[in-house]
Amino acid sequence: MIASDMPHLHEEKVKNLELIANKLRQHVIRMVAAAGSGHQGGALGMADVFAVLYFHELKHRPKDPEWEDRDRLILSNGHICPVRYAAMAEAGYFPVKELMTLRRLGSRLQGHPERERLPGSETTSGPLGSGLGQATGMAYVGKMDKKSWRVFCLTSDAEHEAGVHWEATMFAGKNRLDNLTCVIDRNNIQIDGDTENVMPLEPLRAKYEAFNWHVIECNGNDVQDVTRALEEAKKVHDRPTVVIAHTIPGRGVSYMENNYLWHSQPFKPGEAEKALKELKDIEAKLTADHQQDV
Amino acid sequence: MIRKDAHLIPKPFDPKIEQKPTRDGYGVGVVEAAKADSRVVVLCADLTESTRNLDFKKFFPDRFVQMGVQEQLLAALGAGMALAGKIPFITSYAMFCPGRAWEQVRTNICLNNVNVKVIGSHAGVSVGPDGATHQAIEDIAIMRVIPNMTVIAPCDAIEARKATVAAARLEGPCYLRFAREKTPVFTTDATPFEIGKATVLRDGKDVALIACGPLVYKALRAADELAKRDRIQCMVVNSHTVKPLDEATILAAADRCRAVVTVEEHQITGGLGGAIAEFLTKTRPTPIEFIGVQNRFGESGPPNELIEHFGMGVSHIKAAVKTAMARKRAGRLSLSTIMSKLRGVKTS
Questions:
Q1: What range does the domain containing B249 cover?
Q2: CATH of domain A11-293
Q3: Chain B within 8 Å of A155 (Cβ-Cβ)?
């Protein structure tokens, strides 16, 4: 582990996180392909953020998901849950083989996360806009009870079109919840196309600043930069922090990258295999580099 | 006869009966609940005085959360606080919470199954002059349709206090419905109250009046007048908990009277009457008459005039009782006609 005043990760750690992110992406492809439906674009785009959170940043105990002093991770954009499930499985919350039950009848891995079914998922989420409000409620209690745990809320960019999200932004700003970090998956796509065409969100930074938030931008597909942003957030006092993580939707699969149609369209025959091949090629390269370095 | 074990006040029909809004009972009850359990917190949407949160705010300033006019956040943030171990009472006018916040109540609170108490004040047309925009008469329907949700509509300020304290002790989501206007305080501290257990206030064999909220009092009055002037004996049941329904008590009332009138200050569709009809239809098909708002919006006016205008006054309840009795008799008649025909006997 690195000290909190050292934002840069050791090279080996970087490679390790990149390999994990790659593994999460492969899980996502297999899971969504097996389920026949699901959301790949955002899940692939956020794999690096999840790798950093679950394997570096979060204070958590996978075998004790209700551990009182854990950091809370709220996934507001619940539809990208395949990548969260993959990260949880790899972290040891449940067996990796369970990932293939995604969206099946009786599965703990619902199409959108459900708290009561899956310990460790923190809350039931998916309806866009209402994750930050719940995260804010937790952070408020954290302050009330003088707890050291932090709250992380992952959101999509398009859910910033929902009014209730801004209600939470206003509340968290007023109450100076510096134990709250919101991470925006700024991938510029939503179901009907480009966010700036469907409903312009910019200037996003200025909007958050106007609501008394500290704003950090980072490359959401660079584990080092994500780590830097999350570490900086910890040092901010008297206000919540938002990390605008610029990501590439569909990251790691050439035919999916930056194509809004891959927000959630089902795979046609052969497509998942092609995606997996590309990801395995990346994995092989990362492993080779890794071994060379070691 | 009013039952002794209901422990109502000695003279419930005294014209000088004390009157208080049920929201006052909430205000007292939430302070009591907070004293008993340090996890109780109150979230308020810019309506501290009118939702009767002033005392709570005074006694527990650190547990009082001012939300501003953010009713959807009220529900979402309440869910978050519950997940972090608190027992949040999220308070507003019923029209806005649960009205405006329905999806957050449904998903963040009920599907999530967290310990949040939804407090809907100013329910019913008796809100009065503010008019239809602020008169929630759909709230019972939209709350009772959600799994995991308990729904309670107390009949007076004393029962409102008891319900508030009981709701804090209940694990899980709960909706409490309160009214703005003063109504008679006819129960006492000794009157039984248990969530999910309806109270039989008056015995009778002719028609069962099953009511919730402050209109329970009007049902009781109607029963008293019918007994004195028409020799009709009504059973009166206070079904304060609309969900889960006290099926045993409702069934016993239907068995005894074989005719039912439901009474509530709510749309007939989806409210207490709907719940009872759903239940009796499958267990003991019984003629039911419904007192409530009939597929209309409210409007401005003095509360009592509005109750009359929308057909929920004592005279309307009495008329409904007579209709229910007539239907019961007609039902018996037609049954005896059928039986006679089966036996091949000519009937008159």
A1: 199-334
A2: 3.40.50.970
A3: no
